[in-house]
Structure formats: C-alpha cells, structure tokens
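Title: [Solved] Secretion-regulating guanine nucleotide exchange factor-like 3D structure

Original question kept below for reference.
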Amino acid sequence: MEVFAWGANSHGQLGLGFESELCMTPQRLTRHSFAPQLVRCIRGGGGHVLVLDTNGRVHACGWNNRGQLGLDSTEECHNEFQMIPSEFFEEVPIETVSCGWDISGGITLTKRLFVWGSNAFQQLGICQRGFMAVRRPLPVRLPKEEPALAISFGLRHCAVLTQDHKIYVFGRLRVMDPPPIELDITATTLHRCNTMKIQVHNPNELRIVALSSGQHHMLLKCVDLSQEGGSTKRILSLGDNKFGQSNAFLFEEDVRQLAVGWTHNAALLRNNEILMWGRNCYGQLGTGSISAQQAVPQPLSLRLPDGQTPARVHMGAEHGLLRTTAGEIYTWGWNEHGNCGNNSTENVYSPTLVEIPGRVKLAGAGSGFCYAISESSVN
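Solution (posted by the thread starter after getting help):
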C-alpha cells in the first residue's frame, strides 16, 4: 500500500521530507512512522496532520509553531511523520483524533480527553499562565468526569461531545441570537475557563450524536427519538451565518455523515445524495460555478459522474475531497496551492478525478492539502 499527498507544503505537512510552496499532483511518501495498511483515519489542520492507526497510536507531521504535533518539540516544522510517544497518553490507545488550525486532540479507548497546541483563546479548556501553547498531550477533565465521545475544532474553539450527549465548548464561538429553540445553552466554568454547555431541551425527543466544526460555526447531527427507530434526518447549527453555513435542516433522508469546511458544509445522506450549502466564492460547493452573492443558504446536490457512489466526504478550508466506493478520488473548490491535485492552481468548480495509482481505501484533507492511501504498489 502507498501513501500519497498533495497541495500546500510550506510547513512540511505533506510528509515528503522537505518544505515547498506546493505540490500540484499526488506525491508518494517514501518514509513514514506508520504502516499504511493499519491506518484508521487521517485528519488535517491548518498546516499539520495526524494519522491514527489501528493500534491506537498517533503519528504527526507538519507545522508545530504552537506544539500542535504533540511531540514535545520546539521545532517550527517536522517534515516527516513521527509517532507521538504512547506514554504521553498514559499508555492507553487512542480511539479518535481531530485537528484545528493550530490545535489537536484525541480521545482514548477509556473515553479520556487529551488536547495539545494553541491555547491563545483558552480553547484547550485551560485558563492558567504559561499555557499559551501546550506541546505534549494534556488530559482535560470534563465536569463530573463525563466520558468524551467526540471532539471537533474550529479556528478558536474546541467542542467536546460527551457520552450522555452534552457538548462543552471552550474558547470563542459566538452563538446566534436567539439560539436554536431545540437547545439549552448555559455559561459555566471549567478549570477557570469560560465554558459553554449545550444540551437538547427535551432529551426524550432529540439526542446529539455527532458534531463537526467550521471556522466559526458548528453542525450537530441529531437522532429524532420521536420517530420509529430514531431517524437522523435533522441537523442543528450554531455560530456565524454570514454565508448561510449555519442554516439548519430536516432532510428527507437520514444523514450518514457531515463534513464541514471553513464556511461551507456537506451532508451525505443514506440514499447517497450529497447536499452542499454555505459559501461558494471558490467553487467549494462543487456545483459547477461560483455564486454571485457568495452565499448558498439552501442545500444543492453535488453531482458525480454516472455510476460513482460516495463512500466518504472530506472538507479542507475551502475545497472538498470525495472517495467513492470504487476507490476513486474527486476534488473541487479552492486550488491556490494545488490542493485539488490536478496539476493546476486554478479553482475547480465541479468534482474532478484525481489520478492516483490503484484503489484508494482511505483519504483525508487539511486546510489546503490532501492525503490518500492506495492499495496499489508503485515501483
């Protein structure tokens, strides 16, 4: 199996062993600290990337100005992957990871939360002198020792979903006024930090099961318990809505996956339809053109070539990546750094096939770059 990366590489985030302005086509990584066949997920931030393997180990590469690689290093960049020592997580395997602009986090198999990177806006949930940047994973206790289920980062906020379906938000995230009527939002403190607590108004009718953050907004995937079997057709939203990115919807089909960019969103539905809405100044909605007013407040369908079925959608800051069930990769949107992988820096307005040898089994995206792991060997 082979690992490919393309796009912005100014901080060595492509793991190629060097820094460069950009790589406009997929480049094969020749060295990495993980076994490609064991990779569970790839998560990208502003200029760094985390790879989680099936053994619960985390591997990091790229920008490290705020310690977001978690390597306890003061080097500005690491242009090759290194494994974060397991002792930093108290020898407990990691179950899930997430990246923000200059911040990272992970949750262990025992549902314990670790965070590292920038704390300039108290987004690590810590309000103490000397903690502007945290360079190795730091455990954060939630109220009443609540187990953590998922974590999501925006530009200046961190949101944590707990096992009992509450959300705690650290840092800065402005909530629209009035907030969604389905939610109860209260201000509290945690470790001397101002913290926002979010829970549904009626837990017998609605349950938050997933969250995904953009630059200054957040989408919540919910289960409607009033429906037989519990439908996931409803999403709620919080935060900035300048481009319609915080509009909430009740879809006609269950939501399989939410993917969020800086100011735009994608919802992959159970019937394999992909709906896009939010900002569209670079073609990041993949609808074939840009929008004169930049904003698309109502969902539009993303069209794929005939016969292609979506498996997973990933969002960069202003571009998108889609892996099909056939193992092909399509990209669209902002392409200034070659992040669409089509040997160009012109923006791409519709999903376009990326030439990668073999069948891609897993992919991921950061702010201006992409990764893919292919089952084919390259000589």
